[in-house]
Design a protein that fits this description.
Helix content is 54%, strand content 3%. The protein is mostly helical. Strand 3 and strand 4 form a beta hairpin. It is globular, with a radius of gyration of 24 Å.
Amino acid sequence: MRETEAVVAANRFGLGAAPGEIRAIAGDPRGALKAQLAGAAPLIGQALPGSHELLAGALQLRADAAGERQAGSPQLAAAVQTIRDLYAPAHAAEVLARFREAVSSQRSFLERLVHFWSNHFAVSVDKVQVLGLAGAMEREAIRPHVLGSFAGMLLAVEQHPAMLLYLDNQASMGSHSQAARLAGRRGRTLGLNENLGREILELHTLGVDGGYTQEDVRALATLVSGWSIGGGQGRLRGGEPGRFHFRSAFHEPGAQRLLGRRYGEEGLAQGERALRDLARHPATARHLAGKLARHFVADEPPPTLVESLAQVWLRTEGDLRSVYGALLDAAVAWEKPLAKFKTPADYIHSTWRALQLPVAQRDVRLFEQLGQRPFAPGSPAGWPDRSADWDGPAALMKRLEWAQESGGQLGSRRNARQLAVESLGPLWSASSAEAVARAQDAAQALTLWLGSPEFMRR
């Protein structure tokens, strides 16, 4: 029983079992996971550029381009480096650092939690303005708060330049704000952008069934009007380049009513107070308890588990460490091993951990090849989290083709029978063990292990 729980701990709650990991935690699997929650979350990529540095560089590029246009330079395209050129190396470095941490981490439960919240607060690098910033947002706004309060994480994310740019809030202004009135006198129409307010309610906090209305969407968008980024030009000038900047001239004056609660005019603090209340709202507790249970337990999680996690959320006002602990304490979370089909990222991480492969930049392309390019879910909803979204025939064939290629490259240097036991323990089935034992050579044996039903699930 304990060995089975150790397999669940390493594969369902973690990112896949490394050699020796199951044996090491078999004495107390739950205790081993709880130990990972002690202390601060590990920070990575300290040598990587911060989002403010990248944005300051992008702002300088725009200024240079404006100067070239004003001078009438015919070599504008060649003379001015593009934002994509600036951001692409930073994005590649972020993805590589993240991949390496996932493969080498001794706290892979904690690392999975970082990835979970990063996907919950999804921004997609399909929008070039956030190409270099998505990874930085995970490092700067999510990772430091993954063991803290949800309210702290929520505020850090919604004020991060990546989120503000992705949802076009940097120029959003209230219709009665000082900036909007001035623009009106000049014959221009500028106004409120509801994207950020809508996604905070629909995706980040209450959920689509959370009981809010269109009036609430507009109210929240109004409350966060003026949440912007410093260092721009024209009406966006002011503030430290590349960092969060509250533009009071863009902020809608006066009180607002959100979900029946009145928020008096407090400038920046008005929107921050609203977000803190949303973080503690019962609908937020239920929505996020459901997402956590779905991710870690089953596509259709037991309602009793969701309710118990929601109650812990409400009692602790969104203390994430307490919610994780309640998840680990729930017997139902351990009852059905291998209940979740691995996403492409799960499959890659668990393979690298089991094989102890070094991570190189060229390996990153496998994520896109298997259908889950890092930081590119394509929408603010993030990557889906149900088996039906990942186990289609075409997707499965891509994994099997890659498994066959890897078997040919690594089979002579790996013992598939030993790897199967190291990664799956008692959950390695007799039928899969027999198939590997009957393989015609080591390459085919490794392919059969990588393509086995047990290794495809967590």
